[in-house]
Amino acid sequence: VTGVRLRVRRALVRDLSKPRSFPPRPGLLTTDFAEIRDDPSVSLVADVMGGLLPTERYLRELLAAGKKLVTANKQLLALHGPRLAEAAEVARQPIRFEAAVCGAVPVVRTLCEALPPAAVGRVVGIVNGSCNYVLTRMEEGLELADALAEAQSLGYAEADPGEDVSGADAAAKMALLAAIAFGRRVTLEDVERTGIEHVTRRDVAAARAAGKRLRLVGKAADVDGEIAVRVTLEALPEEAALARVSGPRNEIHLYGGAFGSLALAGLGAGGSATATAVVADLMAIAAGTAVSHVTRLALGRFQDHP
Ligand code: HSE
Questions:
Q1: Atom of ligand 1 nearest to the CA of 151
Q2: In ligand 1, which atom is closest to the CA atom of 173?
Q3: Catalytic one of 67, 68, 173, 212
Q4: Is the CB of 163 under 6 A from ligand 1?
Q5: Tens digit of each residue's pLDDT (9 = 90 or more) over 256-299
Q6: CA contacts within 13 A on the Cβ side of 273
Q7: 269 CB less than 6 Å from ligand 1?
Q8: The dihedral of CA 202, 204, 208, 210: what is its sign?
Q9: pTM: predicted TM-score of the whole model, two decimal places
Q10: Which residues contact 251 (CB under 8 A, 6 or more apart)?
Q11: Are 36 and 42 spatial neighbours (Cβ–Cβ below 8 Å)?
């Protein structure tokens, strides 16, 4: 498809002997990051390791070594995206991060590549699959802790599920969506958020009795240059589009004067959904035509030059 044959040269792991669902070929796994950084046959690296450090240092060293990057690390991007974007610019290497936002739903690609800059004025959506799964299961009678344990066992939750239920994961995604939609510098600190950790089965049942469903909703708007981004628990009327999003699915609505509205929906969490986005970005870079997603995090250029 890309005209390029991708070969997996190395995979960095913590523990070589950990049982894995696939048999890695001999020599594939390494615990030594330098083996990847210093291998001239590696031109493209996918980061799915999470965390802030040493991940940021690794990404910077990879850029300096001339590698192109794909990352799923939304917390790192939402906190330090602008400085990572600057490092990518200095190194003249792309970083793409579709996998950091909403699993298999191609919302980063839509904002960066399918719509013209500054076309979007508002973003509204359900962007955390685990919280949506938990709220959906609570509608079926489960307690929050049991529903969250299920979300963890199904691979939807973050390594620290507190990031999901506190709204921090959704806030990071909304910061990234706002930054790339509006071409402005928006980081995690700019996002007001609430989570679902205090929601009880009784709250969910009371909402249902009133014809409503509780959903964790992200909202970002650019009103005459004023950017507001928040994540809130909302009681939505049952017939509302976002109220009908169930399980680990995500749904994002983009609004803009020129095109009206556009909606994207799909599986927002889980290993294979995230891997779909990682592979798509790897292929886009391999094809040689890919734009770098992080340039939109850096300086808000298109708002400066309308
Ligand atoms: N923990 C995240 C979620 C994974 O539940 O949406 C996908 O980013």
A1: 5
A2: 8
A3: 173
A4: no
A5: 999 999 999 999 999 999 999 999 999 999 988 789 999 888 76
A6: 21
A7: yes
A8: positive
A9: 0.94
A10: 125, 126, 241, 242, 245, 263, 264, 265
A11: yes
